[in-house]
Every structure is written in C-alpha cells, then in structure tokens.
C-alpha cells in the first residue's frame, strides 16, 4: 500500500509545483532594457565681440531666428522599459537638463558653481505601467513629475501646450483614439531662494481626446480646469481649451499643425499651457491661434512656416488689449546630402492699451520687429530636420524705433547683427 501511494504523492507534488511555476511565470520578465535619448543646443553667438543675454523677443513671438540664448544646453532622457509574461509593461523615465537659459560662455575654472542659473536639474521622473488585464491592454497609468502632451511652434520654438508638474493620470483607447485624464500640480515659488510660507499651489485637471480623423486630417481636443490655492475668489480658478488640426501642408506635400485655444483666469496663458507660470484673475481672457508646418516643394527645396497670434479678449498678463502676432518662413535648400542652406525671415508685432506692462507710453506702446537670417547647416542628413548639425549664421534684427529696440535687448540703436554658430543634436 505504501508503495502505491508514492507515485500518487509524486504526482500531487508535481502538479503543485507546476501550478506554482505557472503562477510565478505570469510575472516573469521577458524583456528588459534601457533607452537613452537626448538633446543638445550649443549656441556660440556674438554681437560686436560680446556675448549677450537676450533672445530678442523670441519667447514673445517677436522674432524667429537662431536666438536661443543657451550657450550649452544639454538634455538626457533615460528610460527603462520592462515587459512581463502576462502582458504587463512598465516604463521608468528620467529627464535631466543642464544649461537651459544660461547665456555665459564658461571656461574650465568651474565657475558654474557660482551661478545658480541653469544648473543640473531633473525635469522629469515618472513611472508608467500598462497592460493590466483588469484595465485593458490599451490602458496605462502613470505618476510622477513630467511634461504631459507638449507641443511647440516650429519657428518660434515656444511650447504653447503642456502640463508641467507633479501628478498622475490614466490613458486608454476609446473608439480607436487616445483618451486620457490627468491631474498635475505645480508650485510657482518652487526653487525660490525665499519661498513663501503659504504656498499658492496650482493644479490642472486635464481631459484629452486625440486622433479623431476628419476633414482630411485628424483632430486633438484638450480641456483643462485649473485652480490655485490661497488666492481670492476672483483669481483662484480658470478654464482652458484647445482644438488642434493635423494634416498635410494645406493640401500640398508636407505637414501642418493648426490650433486654436481659449483661456481665462488661471488658464490665461494660451489656455492649455500649464505650469508654475500659470495664474490670473477673472479679467484675464485670451485667444491663441497658431499654424505651422513644413512644405516639400521639390526634392531639394523645403520651407517651414509659422503664423501665430495671441491676444487679450479683456486682459492678458495684466495688460489690457494686448496683441502679439508672428509671421515667419524658413526656406531650406539641400546643396547635397550633408549641406543645407537656410534663410529665415520673420515679422513680429506687439501692441496694447496705453500704460500696459508697467506704464508703456509713446513709441513703446506698439512694436514692429523684423528679422532676417542666413545660415548654412553642415549635417549628416540635409533634410529639414537632419541632425546633428553645425550651423554658422548671421542674423539681422531691427526694431521700428529705439523704444521697441530697448524692449527686446538691443543695446545701441534700433538694430543688431548677430554672428554665431549653432550646434544642435537630438537622438
């Protein structure tokens, strides 16, 4: 009898063991690896033998040349991606940055330590997990610090859409399109030498639905409901919304992104541009319209363009009747596989009601800024977005009067000639 039980016991043990293996194998790692991406922008530029700390109004849609003032901006994105036997996957993302906004040409003495501007910073660190059987294979959740759903103008380079801060969210597929909900918070005085005892934390509740195909392209929809702590009732809330239309270059070969956005109160900054810079009262209302893209004219000739408008429907950033718009083009000609010639031309305009932005009067009430730039890009791929590249350039910036020139950082007269070499890489 004892001998007959031995095979039975062995079979039971085998079954139990195989069940245990099956239970464990569902979470076994089947793929695990690291990705490294990044960006570099090194701008060596001189005006009459001197480095300068101005972007000539580029962040305010006044110019579109190679005017980023960062002399040595470096960015690395490290991602650890893991996949498991049961279909669950995870991403751990860390984005670090150095030098963004620094205009000094540093030497090897290590003097960066004496300057607290544009030091090494961790800008994103978040975990995203997806593939849960109980949520659906197209659903993922995330939490941490990140830039959510960013979009920037092609020639202005300005991010007009993002939620930048610490938060959490869920993303899935609905009707074959991407849908998501997220909550993101940011403290305006974060990192300040003397932060306020009472925090005025900003929070944005984001709803988005992307990729709706219609009218020969696709539409993205964004809605953001914002609030700010420890503010009066007339400046503690806001709402922003945007519709983005993605298609070819207005019926021609290429691509464009066109958007219209509305923002009020805390969301006055282009409606969907949320971060520590957000905030506003009930009088703040803005309309933002932008359209940019690249036209493929021939095998050798391409052209980038941008048309952007932002204006106050009442007040914007405290300025009554504020209006800004930018018209810019950048034709690009491929000489050969490794050399591209570029020209950038832009016109920027700003105006507001007498006395805006600290009492502007006279010529400073209205500004017209012209920019013409010639450049040659030496690159590994002469396509419009071929990178890495080393681009020598000469840029001419002219204001309509001395008062307008002072506003954008021109030190003498109403014009500047900038000579530089811009080096750029993304990977």
UniProtKB/TrEMBL annotation:
SUPFAM superfamilies: Porins
Location(s) in or outside the cell: Cell outer membrane
Keywords: Cell outer membrane, Ion transport, Membrane, Porin, Signal, Transmembrane, Transmembrane beta strand, Transport
Residues annotated as signal peptide: 1-22
InterPro entries recorded: G_neg_Bact_CarbUptk_Porin, Porin_LamB, Porin_LamB_sf
Record flagged with keyword Signal: yes
Membrane topology designation: Multi-pass membrane protein
Lineage top rank: taxon: Bacteria
Pfam name, any one: LamB
Keyword Transport: yes
Protein family (similarity comment): Belongs to the porin LamB (TC 1.B.3) family.
Protein known as: Carbohydrate porin
Provenance organism: Photobacterium atrarenae
Phylogenetic placement of the source organism: Bacteria, Pseudomonadati, Pseudomonadota, Gammaproteobacteria, Vibrionales
